[in-house]
Amino acid sequence: MSDLNVVGDRDGWRCWLCDEPVDSEASVNADRGPSVDSWGVAKGKKSLASAERLAHRACNTRKGKVQPVVPWAPQLFVIDPAPIVGTVDRLTRKGGQEVVARCPTQGDADEAATWLVDRLSRLAPDFSVTTRIEPGGGQFLLVLRAG
């Protein structure tokens, strides 16, 4: 396992799961304290989580041995949002594009696209993505494209 300070400095002291700041001075036993999450490392497969990442102790514990869930921001108006981690894993392995959400207005889709690109820049820094918004059927589709 890597040194907590090395991982924390590399990840900007932000939890990779909830994207909230992690207090480097907090006890490692506190819920909001820092921990190193090594999900995916032992599995030996390439994924966005195949390196050790900084997480709050509670976020890391809550995740357990299941696929981590990275939530969409609650202020976004998105319908049928795709699971972020699964989508990024698929696009990392296969490339291409996926519809990740539907939005009722162009403004909602623009806001969701901006948020998603920003969130992914911290979640998977080596993964290059672009977004496209496609109107149709009285709604706007948010499309995420690899590379």
Q: Secondary-structure blueprint of this entry?
A:
Elements: H1 4-10, E1 34-37, E2 53-56, H2 57-63, H3 84-94, E3 97-103, H4 106-123, E4 129-136, E5 139-146
Antiparallel strand pairs: 1-2, 3-5, 4-5
Gist of the model:
With 147 residues, this protein is α+β, with helices and mostly antiparallel strands.
Determine the mean pLDDT.
87
Low-confidence stretches: none
Strand order of the largest sheet: 3-5-4
The SSE order reads HEEHHEHEE
Q: How many individual helices?
A: 4
Q: How many discrete domains?
A: 2
Structural class by helix and strand composition: alpha+beta
Report the oligomer. Answer: single chain
Estimate the global geometry from the Cα principal axes.
Answer: elongated
What's the helical proportion of residues? Answer: 25-40%
Tally the beta strands.
5
Give the N-terminus to C-terminus distance in angstroms. Answer: 30 Å
Radius of gyration from CA coordinates: 16 Å
The main β sheet shows up as: 3 strands, antiparallel
Describe this structure in words.
The chain is an alpha+beta fold. The protein has two domains: 4-63, no CATH class; 84-146, no CATH class. Helices cover 29% and strands 21% of the residues. Strands 3-5-4 form a three-stranded antiparallel β-sheet. A two-stranded antiparallel ribbon has the order 1-2.
